[in-house]
Amino acid sequence: MSAVEIPTAPRKPGDGVRLFGFTVGHVNMPIGFFLDGEPGEMRAPVTAFLIDHPKGLVLFDTGLGPRFVRPRGTQPDSFIDLEQGDTIDERLNAIGVDPAAIRWIITSHLHTDHAGGNAYFPNATVIVQEREYDHAFHNITDDPIYEISEYDLGQPFLKIHGEHDLFADGTIVIFPTLGHTPGHQSAKIRTDGGDIVLTGDCCSLKRSLDEFRLPNHCHDADQFLTSLKLLSSLERKGARVFPSHDPDFWATIPKVGPIG
């Protein structure tokens, strides 16, 4: 039995770890931001995931946060588009999950479109690679994608080094995928339907992995390419790799009920 029952998706006997996906806003960006040299523009979803584990509820990323919310029915005034009701706390409320029940937030990295909603979860511990924590708290200067007020909230941090098995049972394994930022990480989730890898911005689009294409910006290109090769290895072993910002891929993911 889940630590917190989800009214819209009650557990059945024998259910293991379950994964739910959410759209938490969009960003309108040049495609080259994700694939260096690629022309054109795209409307990319910002995504977050709820992991329903028998020992507690876990989030992977929290999407855009309250500073970007616009009233429903109005037009966005920037490339960031987050309508009222689309934040991660509202997405959870819609399926009957109280944000106060979230125990852990696995943060792929501390950019604003991945950690912006952390404030909605006062009882959660934030899991982050120590090198990402150090960079985000001590080494950023004028990088606007890090907004320290969104993650310096008094929540406890679990600063990890390398791979970390959250519940020591192989169901949620966090591992570094460096390159996009100094301490980027991804997570492999073992569901009844097989392994799913949540990539964060190590793999923004499916083409990033299929073509080993880097974005037009990254902290370390060599590390980034090594991380893509790791994801490719996991995919060859049967894991489903979920890119974080791919509108075509995201259109295939169930928005009601568990993914896996």
TrEMBL record:
Residues 45-245 form the Metallo-beta-lactamase domain. Signal peptide: none annotated. Pfam families: Lactamase_B. Its cofactor is Zn(2+). This is N-acyl homoserine lactonase family protein. SUPFAM superfamilies: Metallo-hydrolase/oxidoreductase. Belongs to the metallo-beta-lactamase superfamily. InterPro entries: MBL_superfamily_lactonases (IPR051013), Metallo-B-lactamas (IPR001279), RibonucZ/Hydroxyglut_hydro (IPR036866). Coiled coil: none annotated. Keywords: Hydrolase, Metal-binding, Zinc. One of its GO terms (molecular function) is metal ion binding.
